[in-house]
Amino acid sequence: MSALKEEADALFRKLKEDEILPDSGTYNTLIRARFRDGNKTASAELIKEMRSCGFEGDASTIALVTNMLHNGRLEKTFLHMLS
Questions:
Q1: What is the DSSP string of 30-82?
Q2: d(CA 58, CA 4)
Q3: Under 8 Å CB-to-CB from 48, ≥6 apart: which residues?
Q4: CA distances for 44 relative to 3, 18, 51, 53, angstroms
Q5: Residue 76 CB-density burial (10 A; 0-12 exposed, 13-18 middle, 19+ buried)
Q6: PPR repeat positions in this chain (predicted)?
Q7: Most exposed of 7, 46, 68, 78 (fewest Cβ within 10 Å)?
């Protein structure tokens, strides 16, 4: 993981420790980063967490998932998770 991603993860953890609810933009950015790294498990966990907080995937996250589905890099369950 790059230093920038490690820093983003640390900041995300700090937000949650301080009981500051991340917004949908924060979740979507982290989800896209995990997808690009091929970390499907972390992506799924973030999607579930995001949904439990009442947020949805944004257009760019859904487009990324759709492209990865088309290329055979993801299962259809990921699209369902974002809808």
A1: HHHHHHHHT-HHHHHHHHHHHHHTT----HHHHHHHHHHHHTTSS-THHHHHH
A2: 22
A3: 81
A4: 22, 23, 11, 14
A5: exposed
A6: 23-57
A7: 7
Single-letter amino acid code for the residue at 5: K
Helix axes 24-37, 40-52, angle to 10 degrees: 170
Rounded Cα–Cα distance for residues 27 and 19 (Å): 15
Per-residue pLDDT tens over the stretch 42-54: 888 988 888 898 8
- N-terminal to C-terminal alpha carbon distance within the chain: 28
